Amino acid sequence: SPTTLADTYRDLHERPGAMAWIGLYRPAAAQLLSAAEEFGLHELAVEDAIVAHQRPKLERYGETLFAVLRAARYLDETEEVDFGEVHVFLGRNFVLTVRHAESPDLAAVRRWVEDRPDLLKRGPEAVLYAILDSIVDDYAPVVAGLQHDIDEIENEVFLGEPNVSRRIYELGREVIEFQRAGRPLLDMLRDLSAGFDKYGVDEELRRYLRDVEDHATTVVERVDGFRQMLQNIMAVNAALVTQAQNEEMKQLTQVSLAQNEEVKKISAWAAILFAPTLIGGIYGMNFDEMPELHWVAGYPFAIALMILVCVTLYLLFKRRGWL
Amino acid sequence: SPTTLADTYRDLHERPGAMAWIGLYRPAAAQLLSAAEEFGLHELAVEDAIVAHQRPKLERYGETLFAVLRAARYLDETEEVDFGEVHVFLGRNFVLTVRHAESPDLAAVRRWVEDRPDLLKRGPEAVLYAILDSIVDDYAPVVAGLQHDIDEIENEVFLGEPNVSRRIYELGREVIEFQRAGRPLLDMLRDLSAGFDKYGVDEELRRYLRDVEDHATTVVERVDGFRQMLQNIMAVNAALVTQAQNEEMKQLTQVSLAQNEEVKKISAWAAILFAPTLIGGIYGMNFDEMPELHWVAGYPFAIALMILVCVTLYLLFKRRGWL
Amino acid sequence: SPTTLADTYRDLHERPGAMAWIGLYRPAAAQLLSAAEEFGLHELAVEDAIVAHQRPKLERYGETLFAVLRAARYLDETEEVDFGEVHVFLGRNFVLTVRHAESPDLAAVRRWVEDRPDLLKRGPEAVLYAILDSIVDDYAPVVAGLQHDIDEIENEVFLGEPNVSRRIYELGREVIEFQRAGRPLLDMLRDLSAGFDKYGVDEELRRYLRDVEDHATTVVERVDGFRQMLQNIMAVNAALVTQAQNEEMKQLTQVSLAQNEEVKKISAWAAILFAPTLIGGIYGMNFDEMPELHWVAGYPFAIALMILVCVTLYLLFKRRGWL
Amino acid sequence: SPTTLADTYRDLHERPGAMAWIGLYRPAAAQLLSAAEEFGLHELAVEDAIVAHQRPKLERYGETLFAVLRAARYLDETEEVDFGEVHVFLGRNFVLTVRHAESPDLAAVRRWVEDRPDLLKRGPEAVLYAILDSIVDDYAPVVAGLQHDIDEIENEVFLGEPNVSRRIYELGREVIEFQRAGRPLLDMLRDLSAGFDKYGVDEELRRYLRDVEDHATTVVERVDGFRQMLQNIMAVNAALVTQAQNEEMKQLTQVSLAQNEEVKKISAWAAILFAPTLIGGIYGMNFDEMPELHWVAGYPFAIALMILVCVTLYLLFKRRGWL
Amino acid sequence: SPTTLADTYRDLHERPGAMAWIGLYRPAAAQLLSAAEEFGLHELAVEDAIVAHQRPKLERYGETLFAVLRAARYLDETEEVDFGEVHVFLGRNFVLTVRHAESPDLAAVRRWVEDRPDLLKRGPEAVLYAILDSIVDDYAPVVAGLQHDIDEIENEVFLGEPNVSRRIYELGREVIEFQRAGRPLLDMLRDLSAGFDKYGVDEELRRYLRDVEDHATTVVERVDGFRQMLQNIMAVNAALVTQAQNEEMKQLTQVSLAQNEEVKKISAWAAILFAPTLIGGIYGMNFDEMPELHWVAGYPFAIALMILVCVTLYLLFKRRGWL
Known about the structure:
The structure is a homopentamer. The first copy, chain A, is α+β, with helices and mostly antiparallel strands. A five-stranded mixed beta sheet of chain A has the order 1-5-4-3-2, with helices on both faces. In chain A, helix 6 runs antiparallel to helix 7 and helix 7 runs antiparallel to helix 8. In chain A, a hairpin with a 2-residue loop joins strand 2 (57-61) and strand 3 (64-75). Helix content of chain A is 68%, strand content 12%. Chain A contains ten helices and five strands; from the N terminus they run H-E-H-H-E-E-E-E-H-H-H-H-H-H-H. Chain A has two domains: 5-245, Beta Polymerase, domain 2, CATH 3.30.460.20; 259-320, Magnesium transport protein CorA, transmembrane region (Methane Monooxygenase Hydroxylase, Chain G, domain 1, Up-down Bundle), CATH 1.20.58. The mean pLDDT of chain A is 87. Chains A and B meet through helix 8 of A and strand 2, helix 7, helix 8 and helix 9 of B.
C-alpha cells in the first residue's frame, strides 16, 4: 500500500475498480483539504471533520456518505469513559477515515476487512459496517467496566464506606456522558438501516447492520439500567448514611445518659456523706449550756444520730430513684 | 426419535414432509456448526447462538427464522430472577433449539406440541408460538414471587425492620433486570405479529400470538408497577426510619432531661443541708469574746437559726423552681 | 326470558332475528364450555374467560367479538379499589357475559338497553357500548373517593398527624393499581374505535364510543394527577415530619439548657455559701497560739471576713456570668 | 338583537343567511333542550353541556361542531386557578354557547367578532377561533400569576420562611390542575387543525388557529417548566430547612458545651476551696495529745498547709484541663 | 445601501431581481406597519413581531416565510442565560429582521452572507439558514458557560461550601429556561426541513440546514444532560451537607461526653476529699465523755481513719468506673 496521499491518488487513478482506504490521524487542515479536493468531499463534512466534538450522525452527499462515530474506552483507574471520534467518508472507490483519538483501532478493522473479500465486494458500505461493528464491540468492555464499578459501589454502600457519595455521583456523570454518545448512535444506525432499505443495499449487509444495531441497543439499554441503578444506590446510600449517623448519635447519647446517671449517684452519695457533718458541727459548738454534751451517752447518741440521718437519706434517695 | 445428529439428518432426507426438532444444550461450537451446515443457517445467527447474553430478538434469514428468547425463573431463597436463554432456528422442516440454561422446559413444550397435530400442521411458526407461550407462562411465577416479596417488604417497612433498605434495593435491581428482559420480548412479539401479517401466516396462529402478547404485556405492566412501588417503598422506608430514629432520640433526650432535673434537686438539697453547717462552724470558733456562747438560750438560738436558714433556702429554691 | 341455557339455545334457534343475552356469574367450566360449543366461541377466549385476572383487551374471532373489561368499586372503609372482571362475547345474535365479581351491575345495563330499542337495533356492538359506558361511569365514584381521601390526607399532613405515611403509601398503591386497569382500557377503546372505523360500524355508535373514550380519558388523566399529587404529598410529609421532630428536639434542648443554667447557679451559690465555713474552720482550730482569738474584736472580725469572702466570690462569679 | 329564545328562532327562520349567537349561562335543562330541539343538537352533546366538569374536547355531529373549552382565572389572594367551562355548539347559522362559570367574557368576544365582518364571513369556525383565542389569551395572566408566586416562594425559601412547604405544595397542586386543563386543549387544537385541513377550511382561518395553538403551546410549556421548578424548590426547601435546623441545634449544643465548661470550673473551684477545710477540721479535733497544737508556729504552719493544698490542687486541676 | 425605509422601497422597485435586507431594532409600531404594508406582511405575523416573548416558530404566509427565533447569551457574572428574540420575514426579494435584544449580531451574519454569493443566489432561505446558523453557533458559549459553572459547583459541593444549594437551584432554573428555548427551535428546524423537502428547496441548502439541526440537537442533548446532572448534584449536596452537619454534631457530642467525664471525676474527687472532714467533725465535738480523745494514739488513730476512709472510697469509685 502506498505511503503518501499523492501516491495513493495516482494509484487510484491508474487502477480503475480499485478501492483506497486512507486513514488520517488528527490531520492538519491542509492534508484534509487536499483529500477533500481529490475526492470531491463536501465542504460542510470537511469542516466537521476538522473540528472534533460532533454528535454521531450520518449524511449523504451525492455519492459520498459521511459518518461521525464515537468510540469509547473505559479507564478503570479513574472510572472515566474516554471518548474517541472517527469521521468516515465513503465513496465509490475510497474510504477516508479521520481519527481524533487513539481509541478505535482502525488498523485491526482494516486487517479484518481485507481478510473478507466476500464482504469487501459488497462495496464501501461494508467498510462502514466493519467500523461500526468494531466500535460497538468496543463498547462491551465499557459496559463491563461500569457494571464492575457499580458492583463495587454497592458493596461499599452496604459496608458503610464513608466517601462513596462522590464515587456514585461521578460514575453517574460518566453514565450520562455515555448515554449521550450511545443514543444518537442508535438513531444513526436506524437511519442507516432505513437508508439501506431505501437505496437497496444488499440484504446480507442489512442483516449485518441489524446485528450491530442489536448489540448497540443492548448497550444502550444496559446503560439506561445503570442510570436507574445509580439513582437507587444514591438514595439508598443517603438513607443508610443518615441511619448510621443517627445510630451513632443514639449510642453517644446513651453513653451520656449513663454518665449523667453516675454523676447523679456521686452527688447523692456526697449529700448522704455530708449530712452527719452537720451533727458534728452542732456538737462542736462552744455554747456554755449544751445539755447533751454532759450526758454520759452523749457521744454514742451523736454517732447514732449521724447513722440515723445517713440511713434516712439513703432510703429517701433510694425511693426517689436517685441512687 | 433418532439420537445422533447424523441420524436425524438422514431421517429428514429420507422422509420428505417430515419435520425434525433438534434440541441442543450448551452445545460445543463444532456440534452447532455441523447443524448450521446441514440446515444452511446464517453465520451471524450461529455466532449469536454460540455466545449467550443476547437481547430477545427475531431475525429472518431467507426461509429460516432465528429467535433469541429469554426465560426467567424466580429463586425465592435469594430473591433473584434467574435468566435462561434459548436460541431457536425455524426452517421449513426443522426446529433447532439451543439452550444456555436449564430453565425453559423445552421437553414439555415438545410433548405439548406433539399432542396438538392441528397446531403442528400450521408449520414451524406454531412451534415458535409454543415456545414463546411456554416462556411467557413461566414469567407468571416470577411476577408472583416478586409480588410476594414486595408484600413482605411492605410489612417489614411498616413494622420497622432495620435492614430492609438493602432488600428493597436488591429487589429493585432484579426488577430492573427483569424489565430489561421483558420489554424487548414485547417489542419482538409486536414485530413478529407485524411479520405474521406481512407474510400471511394464518389467522388462527396470529390470534395465538396476540394471546401471548397480551400475557407478556400484563407481565411487563405489572413489573413496571413493581418498580414504581419499590421506589415509593424506598422513600417511605427512609422517612419512617428517620422518623423512628428521631423519636428514639427524643425519648433519650427526655430521659436526659428527667435525669438532669434530679441532679438539680440533689444539688439544691445539698445546698440546703449545707447552710446550717456554716452556723455550726461560727459557734465552733474559739474566740474569747463571743457573747452568744454565754447566753442561756444560746444553743436553742443556734439551732433555731439553723432551721431558719434551711427553711429560707427551701422557700427561695422552691420559688425559683430549683426543687 | 328463559331460565336455563338449554331453553335459551332452543329459543334462539326457533326465533331467527332474536338476540339472547346470557349472563353467567363465576360459571363452572362445564357451563361455559356448553355455551362455547353452542355459539362456536374460540378456545383461547374461553380459556381466558375461565381464568380471571386478565388485562382489558379486545379480540375479534371471525364474527365473534371477545372483550375483557375491568370494573372498579371504591371501598371507602379500607381505602381500597376493588376490581371486578367481566368477559363479554358478542355474536350476531347473542351476548354472553361472564362476571368474576359482583361489581358491574349488568342487570341494570340490560334494563337500560332494553328500554332503548333504537340502540339495540344497531347490533351487538351497542350492547358492548352500554357495558363499557356503565363500567366507565362506575369509575367516577372511585375517582371521587380517591380525591376525597387525598384531600383528607392533605389535611392530616398539614395538621401533623403522625401515621399518615402509611396511608399515603397505601393510597399510592391503589392509584398504581387503578392506572394499571385504566390505561389498557383506554388503549382498548382506541382500538375499538379504530375497528369501528374499519368495519364501518354506524357513525352514531362511533360517537357514543368516543363519548365513553372521553370519559375514560378524564378518569385516567385525573388518576395520573393523583399519582403526582401523592408523590408530592409524600415528599412534603417527610419534610414536615422531620421539621416538626427537629423543632421538638430544639425545644427539648432549650429546656435542657435552662436546666443546666439552674444547676450552674445552684453550684455557684453552694460555692459562695461554702467559703465562710473555711474561716469558721480556721478559727475553730485548737492551736495554743492564735492571736486573733484573744482580740476583743476577733469575733466581729471573723464574721466580717466571712461576709467579705462571700461578697468577693459573688462579684467574681457575677462577672464571669456564673450567676 | 332579540331577547327570548323563541324570538331568536323566529328571526333566524325569517332571515335566511343570518347567523344567531345564543349565549346561555348555567341554563335550566329545559332551556337547553328547547335550543337542542330547534337546532337539532345531538343528545350526547346536550347531556355533556348540562353536566359541567368535562374535558376539553371537540366532536363533529353531522353539520354541527361541539366543543368543550375550559377558561382559567388566577385568584391571587388564595393562589388558586379558577376554572370556567364553556360548551360551544357551532352550526351553519347559529352559535350556541353554554357557560358554567363567569370567567370567559363571551360578550367581549362577541363585540370583537362583530367588528370584524371579514372574519365572520368565513363561517361559524371563525367564531370558534375567536372564543379559543380569547380563552388562550386569558391563560396569560394565569401564567404570570403562577410565575409571580413562584418568584415569591423562591425568595421565601432562601430567606428561610418557615411555612413555605405548604405554599409550594398547594401551588404545585394548582399547576397540576392547570396542566390537566391545558394539555387536552392543545390536543384539541391539533385535532381541530387536522380537521380544518381535512374539511378544507380556508387557509387564513387555519393560520389564525395555528397562532392560537402556538400561544397555547407556550402556556403549556411554561406551566410544565413551573412543575419542574416547584419540584426543585420543594427539594431545595427541604434541604435548607433541615440545614438551618441542624445549624440551630449545633449552636444550642455549643451553648450547652460552654455551660458545662462553666459548671466544671465551678465544681473544680469548689473542690479547691474545700480542701483547706479538711485541715481546719483536723486541728479542730479535741484529742489530748496533738503535738502541733502546742508548737509556737503551729497556727502559721496550718495556714501554710492550707495554702499549699490549695495551690497543689489548683496546679493539678490546671494540668488536667479542669480549670 | 440606502438608509431610510422609503429609499429602500424605491431602490427595490427600481431594481428588479435585487434583494433588500431591512434590519429593525425594537421598531416603533408605525415603522413596522409601514414595512408590513410595503411587503404585504400578514397581520398576525406583524402582531407577533411587535410584541416579543414568542416561542420559536415558523409560519408560511403565501410567499412570505415568518420565523421567530431566540438567541442566547451567557452572562457569567450572574450565571444567567440572557435571551434575545429575532423575528424574520422572508419574501422573494426582501429579508426583514426585527430584533428585540442586542444579542444575535445580525450585522456579522449579513457580512458573512454578502461574502458568499453562491449561497445568496439560492434565495431568501439561504439568509434564514445564515441567521439560524449564527444563532445556534451562539448557543455554544452558553453551553460552555453552563458546563463551566456546573464544574465549579461540583467542586464546591465536594469541598463542602455552605451556600451552594442556592447556586444549584438557580442554575437549574436557567437550564430549564434554556431548554424551553432550545426544544421548540429543534422542532422548528425539523418542520423547516420537512418544508424544504416539500417545497423542493435545493439539496445543498437542505444539507446546510441539517447541519444546523445537528448542532442544535447537540446543544439540546447536552443541556438535557445538565438538567440530570444538576438534579444529581442537588441530591448529593443535600446528602453531603446533612452528613457533614451530623458529623459535626457527633463531634460536639463527643466533646460534651469528655466534659461530663471530667465533671464526674471532679465530683468523685470532691466526695473523697470530703469524707475525712466527717471524722474531723466527730472528734471536734465537745462531749464530756469521748474515750478516744484521751487515748495516747488517739490523734494518729483519727488521721489513720481519715486515710482509710479516703482509700476505701477511692477504691470503691475506681471499681465503679467513677474515677
